[in-house]
Amino acid sequence: MTNRATTWFSRRKFFSSTGAAALSIGAASTAKASEQLHLSDYAYEVTRTEEEWRAKLDEIEYLIMREGKTEAPQSSPLWEETRAGSYHCKGCDLKSFDGRWKVVMDKGWVFFYHAEPDAVLMGIDGVVAEYGSMAAGYDALTEIHCRRCGSHLGHFLIVNQIMTHCMNGASLVFQPAAA
């Protein structure tokens, strides 16, 4: 896989090394990772062969979720979704985000203030050119993966001076709340 994180950090290590703790009070992620955990050392609950992933996902979904690419802005209808409901990993159906924590921004991706508890892992990723000025000046971004299947979901960024989970809509399935 390309563009994959090779070193994982816990929130405590990430915040202490970047000074971002003060910026994220009230918006801390619920990521769960071990100190210095490497991608190859983590045992995901859901595993598939490359052929099985390719059969499950279309080409764009595969590039995003398995190779760490980023979708084009406004390419997913989920970026403007405002109905009550939940957002699940397209790779394994793990409930990853709740619509209560979603915020619609004009950037064209799906943004949340929080992830569900124990739903995501974080790692370090390179600069994402598709983010344009949002990534300007950063050598690396905090990448977000599904805790259960390891699929790349998006990044943890400061957008409009708010720490957010910036997700690829192609990596999520929206399930509307029961009426």
Question: Could you give a short description of this structure?
Answer:
The protein is an alpha+beta fold and 179 residues long. It is globular. The N terminus is likely disordered.
Protein model, in words:
It is a single chain. The protein has 179 residues and is α+β, with helices and mostly antiparallel strands. It has helices at 11-18, 50-56, 59-67; strands spanning 85-89, 95-98, 102-103, 110-112, 120-126, 140-146, 152-159, 162-167, 172-176. The termini are far apart. 35% of the residues are buried. Mean pLDDT is 77; it is low at 1-37.
Question: How large a portion of the residues is in β-strands, by DSSP E?
Answer: 25-35%
Q: How are the strands of the biggest sheet laid out side by side?
A: 3-4-8-7-6-5
State Rg. 15 Å
Low-confidence stretches: 1-37
- The end-to-end distance, rounded to whole angstroms, is 41 Å
- How many strands? 9
Q: Largest sheet at a glance?
A: 6 strands, antiparallel
- Proportion of residues in helical segments: 10-25%
Descriptive keywords:
single chain; 3 helices; 179 residues; globular; alpha+beta; six-stranded antiparallel β-sheet
Set out the fold topology.
Elements: H1 11-18, H2 50-56, H3 59-67, E1 85-89, E2 95-98, E3 102-103, E4 110-112, E5 120-126, E6 140-146, E7 152-159, E8 162-167, E9 172-176
Antiparallel strand pairs: 1-2, 1-9, 3-4, 4-8, 5-6, 6-7, 7-8
